[in-house]
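Case study 2.
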Amino acid sequence: MNNIHTIAFDADDTLWVNETFFRDAEDEVCKLLSPYIDYESCQQRLFEMEMRNLSLYGYGIKPFTLSLIECAQEVSEGKVTNKIIASIIDIGKEMLNAPVDLIDGIEEVLEKLSDKYKLVVATKGDLLDQERKLEKSGLSKYFHHIEVMSDKQPANYLKLVKHLDISPDTFLMIGNSLKSDVLPVLEIGGHAFHIPFHTTWAHEQVDIEITHERFKSFGMSSEILKHL
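Prediction:
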């Protein structure tokens, strides 16, 4: 741990609340589509549509909204009303304009760590949306660099550490996803801290127990200050 001098933070559900907006949106859309499909089947079809479109659209609210619209057209066999489509578009816009709700204690953590480490944001999603949320959050002053990644695979992290001109063993990633924020970073020789959020997108869930000398898990962000 003494070798670490660069710390990257995931953004969504690590710096601020995010996933609950997606779950709430899915709930609203499945209620809108109740004339065409039952609620549980709708939830499954929405997830399947997101997975089908992920490689084409990528991550973020705008790709999510497109998948919601496409799913509505599909499950209704083209009979979905213009009113419902307009409502889905409004749901997407509401998500984009939602206030940024910081994770408890995260600003204090950033303030203290920024005195000792170089801090960066390493997140997935839409560039414009993530830049907007960072600006709204008031946290940008703590970060040396912002990286919005197309994905979080080992190759993406290797590209990031190369850009930062550091070696992986001096790099620590902190995030809420074992799949995206922990496992690929450990694979390239970096360090990873896991801080779970109370809800996790199904695509990010992994059923695995990690025991690794460069890995730690915490219940809340303030706990990491005892180890850095």
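The radius of gyration is 19 Å.
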